[in-house]
Amino acid sequence: FTRSGESFYMAHTMNFLYRLNSKDGSLEWMYRTDGSLLTIPALENDILYFGSKDKTITALNVKTYDVYWSHKIDYWIMCEPEVEEDYVYFCGGGGAIYCLDKYTGELIWKYQTNGPLDLTNKIIVKDTILYSGSKDGFIVEIKGEEIDMKSFYLK
Q: Are β-strands 129-133 and 138-143 bridged in parallel, bridged antiparallel, or unpaired?
């Protein structure tokens, strides 16, 4: 769930994103996707960012219900999007970490890890440094738009 004011947003594996009233649980609207929604959506400034099994990450305006942009990748979206400054970060099922421009959906960079990523993966961005783990036992540290990465092996 993602909550904002009097509403909360719920992604469902049956290809729907719901906005529910937080006071009484009533349905305010729903949005159909072409694939199951496996992760929690991220909300910033009335734009909801979410990914699905149709290999698309979408930015949806929650006031107008219009799609702001969508971006297709080669694999399912495998982690909750993280919105930080002008960027949206997320993981794809093929083991890649992506950075998109949050206003246009344009790909800024893509980093291919050496191992798979899954639904338990979490991206953390702190002081313009991105951290993420992968199933190969490494934590990836990426600084800025120019990928300056370090990998730390966890034994």
A: antiparallel
CA 68, distance to chain mean position in Å, is 15
C-alpha separations of 2 from 26, 37, 39 in Å? 16, 14, 11
List for the chain the helix, strand, coil content (%; round to 5): 0, 55, 45
Rounded distance between C-alpha atoms, residue 7 and residue 24, angstroms: 10
Largest CA distance in the chain: 48
Q: Which residues contact 10 (CB under 8 A, 6 or more apart)?
A: 1, 17, 18, 20
pLDDT tens string, the chain, 155 residues long: the values are 676 778 888 888 788 888 899 889 899 988 998 888 888 899 999 999 999 889 999 999 988 989 999 999 998 887 888 898 899 988 887 778 888 999 999 999 888 877 666 555 666 676 666 656 566 665 666 665 555 555 555 54
Q: Helices H, strands E: what count in the chain?
A: 0, 16
Task: State how far the Cα of 144 lies from the Cα of 53, in Å rounded to an integer.
Answer: 28
Q: Are 116 and 97 in contact (CB under 8 A)?
A: no
Residue 128 is which amino acid?
T
